[in-house]
């Protein structure tokens, strides 16, 4: 049972079995948690109990993988389910904000781990639907090992087809087919587009498509036109263009990404230094999908 406690700092602390839940983040659904017996720190995500089967289905389908955070424990309450994960350090989004641009010599090792996590998911029938840099966290202080923080928003496919119909994802990372198509779309191909946005942002320091208003952002994504800096290597430019193909059928598969020449030689990951926040590359505000439905409808009207 939950047991609210008072702290000397005035924070609300909740005891849940062997765990103490500390300050919440992300709208109160994610907490820092500490095991009272081992003093191990974990991340706790809270879900409504009625969504328990849907939330846990992707985890049950996936064998363990070194680049996907493991579920440490699940506690089922009357109203909520508490899922505990091994914690990560800072995330890739924050890294790019600090560094502005990550050199290819470092980015190649990091992106390979991101791609390997996606390959593992796709091979076992899991579509992630909401890939973004913020979801990949560092597992070590040296910032060399990445973890996909969780499978929140992921969907377990039924059978071999990956057709989806729901409009889901972070606006800056969403594929053009999701914005403009009224019918089903390939969930795996949509994941690849999002990986392409992540790679571009990692190497360039800003999103490939930007707009001050949702309708402007979505229009640019649907047109699929972007520029790649000339100072990127030809192989990096090639991979970006292979992922950000407007036609989903022309994009590389997740497994195909690992065979691309840019990733053919994977150097030993280097430690990534910490520097103060100062980059402006990711300061652009992008709206949440839930607040953009009217703009999506307007965009479809324009396209038709």
Automatic annotation (TrEMBL):
One of its GO terms (cellular component) is nucleus. Signal peptide: none annotated. One of its GO terms (molecular function) is mitogen-activated protein kinase kinase binding. Keywords: Protein kinase inhibitor. InterPro entries: Kinase-like_dom_sf, Prot_kinase_dom, Tribbles/Ser_Thr_kinase_40. One of its GO terms (biological process) is positive regulation of proteasomal ubiquitin-dependent protein catabolic process. The keyword Translocase does not apply. The keyword Lyase does not apply. Residues 16-263 form the Protein kinase domain. Pfam families: Pkinase (PF00069). Transmembrane segments: none annotated. PANTHER family: SER/THR PROTEIN KINASE-TRB, TRIBBLES HOMOLOG 3. Belongs to the protein kinase superfamily. CAMK Ser/Thr protein kinase family. Tribbles subfamily. This is Protein kinase domain-containing protein. It comes from Micrurus spixii (Amazon coral snake). The lineage of its organism: Eukaryota, Metazoa, Chordata, Craniata, Vertebrata.
């Amino acid at each position: 049972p939950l047991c609210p406690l008072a702290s000397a700092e005035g924070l609300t602390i909740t005891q849940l079995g062997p765990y103490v839940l500390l300050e919440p983040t992300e709208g109160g659904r994610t907490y820092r948690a500490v095991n009272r017996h081992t003093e191990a720190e974990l991340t706790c995500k809270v879900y409504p109990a009625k969504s328990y089967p849907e939330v846990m289905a992707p985890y049950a389908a996936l064998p363990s993988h070194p680049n996907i955070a493991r579920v440490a424990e699940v506690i089922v309450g009357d109203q909520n389910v508490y899922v505990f994960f091994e914690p990560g350090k800072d995330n890739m989004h924050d890294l790019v904000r600090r560094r502005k641009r990550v050199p290819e010599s470092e980015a190649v090792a990091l992106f390979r781990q991101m791609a390997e996590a996606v390959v593992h998911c796709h091979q076992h029938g899991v579509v992630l639907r909401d890939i973004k840099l913020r979801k990949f966290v560092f597992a070590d202080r040296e910032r060399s090992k990445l973890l996909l923080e969780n499978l929140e928003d992921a969907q377990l496919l039924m059978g071999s087809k990956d057709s989806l119909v729901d409009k889901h994802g972070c606006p800056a990372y969403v594929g053009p087919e999701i914005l403009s198509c009224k019918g089903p779309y390939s969930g795996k191909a949509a994941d690849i587009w999002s990986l392409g946005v992540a790679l571009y942002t990692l190497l360039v320091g800003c999103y490939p498509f930007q707009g001050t208003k949702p309708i402007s952002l979505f229009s640019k994504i649907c047109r699929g036109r972007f520029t790649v800096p000339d100072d990127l290597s030809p192989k990096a430019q090639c991979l970006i263009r292979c992922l950000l193909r407007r036609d989903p059928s022309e994009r590389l598969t997740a497994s195909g990404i690992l065979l691309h020449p840019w990733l053919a030689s994977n150097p030993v990951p280097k430690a990534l230094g910490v520097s103060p926040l100062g980059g402006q590359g990711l300061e652009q505000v992008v709206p949440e999908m839930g607040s953009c439905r009217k703009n999506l409808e307007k965009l479809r009207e324009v396209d038709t």
